[in-house]
């Protein structure tokens, strides 16, 4: 059955790549994949839990299933238009990206990738997968968040040409965790947001109408200070006067979030764009209706305690559940104007 599933996915992707490309739309996906670790010990990071004899009993078989699960999510998000760009977080290293793009059902899609090498103690990083025929990188910068008394993930900044035409700047983020307490850790997220804002302001000072997408797991809600005050990202409202250099949070008004915690849906994963991309005449145009949280039924499981369907996770503490992730993916489509 597993071999049949892989063959069908590969066949579908092969058909897509040759027959169903949609040149006027760029599909972008963001996904916190929940602990994509390999099974090898890295002496430079604290990955002991994710070894065969570690607390999580992370075996090669489980690792392989994780790769297949992520591939299935990518295929579902594609739905006839395979994502051209995929931002990921909670990936351990370059090896897992190689396995995902070359040794899983995704191998037929031809993705290339970039991944940070952050100072995070567990060794988890941020990555971008891209289809080179649709996105041509021209500049890459890893933004390190200092000081390092609370090591966190670098921000991955990539600029490239979309279909050889217009320039798109991406900032991929995984802000510091709340695990030690929301209030106690808030200064770290505000620091990350401040550094991100500095880089965006610098970019806009030379390119006022730059097309900018900021996406990630911010470990804060759209209304929290790191995003609403420091980054100054705003909701889109009927009364909004769109300004090209302002930042607009396209997840702000969504009914539910991508992460479920203690009975509540949380909007920790977000997609934020520069106002220049919300103007219909923009060469790379999008809006709230082109942005969604992908909640496919196979990504959910019924939680009896809360009486609703929640993300089907891979692990719950040391309990292996074999699901996909504790987060749901986000999707945004850009309309490419001639």
Break the fold down into its secondary structure elements and pairings.
Layout: H1 2-19, E1 25-36, H2 60-78, E2 85-91, H3 94-102, E3 112-115, E4 125-130, E5 135-143, E6 155-162, E7 166-174, H4 182-206, E8 211-217, H5 225-230, E9 233-234, E10 247-249, E11 259-261, E12 264-266, E13 269-274, E14 284-285, E15 291-293, E16 300-303, E17 308-311, E18 315-316, E19 319-320, E20 330-336
Parallel strand pairs: 1-2, 7-8, 9-10
Antiparallel strand pairs: 1-20, 2-4, 3-4, 5-6, 6-7, 8-13, 10-13, 11-12, 14-20, 15-20, 16-17, 18-19
Tell me the span between the first and last alpha carbons. 45 Å
Strand content: 25-35%
Give me the strand/helix succession: HEHEHEEEEEHEHEEEEEEEEEEEE
- CATH homologous superfamily grouping: Endonuclease/exonuclease/phosphatase
Mean pLDDT: 92
How many helical elements? 5
How many separate domains? 1
The CATH C-level class name: Alpha Beta
What is the helix content?
A: 10-25%
Radius of gyration: 19 Å
Counting DSSP E segments of at least 2 residues, the number of strands comes to 20
* Oligomeric state, counting identical vs distinct chains: single chain
Shape summary: globular
